[in-house]
Design a protein that fits this description.
Structural class: alpha/beta
Mean pLDDT: 95
Largest sheet: 5 strands, parallel
Order of helices and strands: EHEEEHEHEHEHHEEHH
Helix content: 25-40%
Distance between the termini: 45 Å
Bound molecules: (3-methoxyphenyl)methyl 1~{H}-pyrazole-4-carboxylate
Low-confidence stretches: none
Number of helices: 8
Oligomer: single chain
Length: 239
């Protein structure tokens, strides 16, 4: 996968050189190219923003630098066009399904907006996905791009050591992850649930499913709506 990121703060994306995403780059699974939007400005002050039509607070990112940047970046390869992603509070809520979909794309381009946003005509012309990572406003799309890219990268083949951990992900079955434990068996007087040390793998799977269902019912009942559950699950949910 190739990911191009357009931003006025390229340094903000340095963390992508670390850890999981950094390793994926070393293995050639992922190539990340960061671009400074100001490279496509033409004035001496390298202006990327201007006052909003209609008035109101803050500034809006001008269309010309974005159009020049995206035209050049996407012209890289003749017959293929990247999927252009714009992180924004006004976007579609980002979910694991969305991460799985993006992980199948060969080429992503992230547009990091700042100020009050990017001129709508750029979004109209270029954006394939407007994605929200949550109902809050950040100062720019860089942090959201780090979040989206991390969720996507960990799904790429060979990136996570134990590929099984992707299959067991939270949300992979649409439920929240239940509690996890490791040594010591007793810590501060609290014992690890004995079933987990029983070696009875069927009982362990049942216990984990029950914990995930109960936690989901408590914290995220919305994830349980419009879903059919087997009798065994219904018993847990009714408890
Ligand atoms: C493109 O226009 C804008 C405008 C304002 C802020 C941003 C950055 O994204 C977020 O704030 C965000 C993304 N998901 N949840 C919050 C982009």
């Amino acid at each position: 996968m190739r990911a191009d990121i357009v931003t006025i703060f390229p340094a903000y994306l340095e963390p992508l050189r670390l850890s999981l995403v950094g390793r994926a780059q070393e293995h050639g699974t992922l190539q990340i190219h960061t671009h400074d939007l100001r490279m496509w400005t033409t004035d001496v002050h390298r202006t990327v923003d201007d006052a909003p039509y209609g008035g109101g607070p803050g500034m809006v990112m001008r269309p010309e630098p974005w159009d020049a940047a995206l035209s050049q970046i996407t012209a890289r390869v003749a017959d293929s066009r990247p999927r252009v992603v714009v992180p924004t509070p006004a976007g579609t809520p980002f979910t694991q399904r969305h991460a799985e979909e993006l992980a199948r794309e060969p080429w992503l381009v992230f547009c990091c907006g700042r100020y009050e946003g990017i001129d709508a005509r750029v979004i109209e012309t270029w954006a394939d996905d407007e994605i929200s990572i949550g109902d809050y406003v950040l100062a720019g799309g860089e942090a959201a791009t780090l979040v989206i890219l991390e969720a996507v990268t960990r799904l790429l083949p060979g990136v996570l050591g134990n590929s099984a951990s992707v299959a067991d992900d939270s949300f992979s079955d649409g439920l929240l992850e239940g509690p996890v434990y490791t040594r010591p068996p007793v810590w501060r007087g609290t014992e690890v649930p004995p079933v987990l040390r029983s070696g009875d793998h069927e009982a362990i799977a049942r216990w984990r499913r029950s914990q995930a269902l109960r936690r989901t019912l408590l914290r995220r009942p919305d994830l349980l709506e419009h879903r059919e559950f087997a009798e065994a699950d219904r018993v847990v949910l009714a408890a």
